[in-house]
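Record 1 of the preview.
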Amino acid sequence: MFESIVVGTDGSQTATEAVRQTIELASSVGARVEIVSAYEPVSRERPREDGEQAPEDMQWMVNQREEVDATLAEAAKVAQRAGVHSATYARQGDPADAVLDVAEEQGVDLIVVGNKGMTGAERFLLGSVPNKVSHHAPCSVLIIRTT
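->
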């Protein structure tokens, strides 16, 4: 059925839930999980408050590489505890593009994204990660209700 699944995370509560459910699915079907997180370089002088003041769907832009690495390491630990083989990918740039790129590179069977940003008028914004992934995916997409 599914041999390889990609999931994106930014460390948020909803993304963590999407990762958890992806790992549960992967465990039940014996799939490998490719865990992706995106970042934009941020100078050390830039206050952390910038990230906290940014809209939720734009906070990925102020993640430092170190924070992304920590987020990926935590997700990989969850996979390991569940007995699921995983790999992590920190990619600079747009999070939807990062997920799509890894999906194509690894030839995955399924992309899993959370529904964050898919409610009301927000679902029509082109910047929405779930929206972009669902329209450009090279494979099946599962949108998990995380909110």
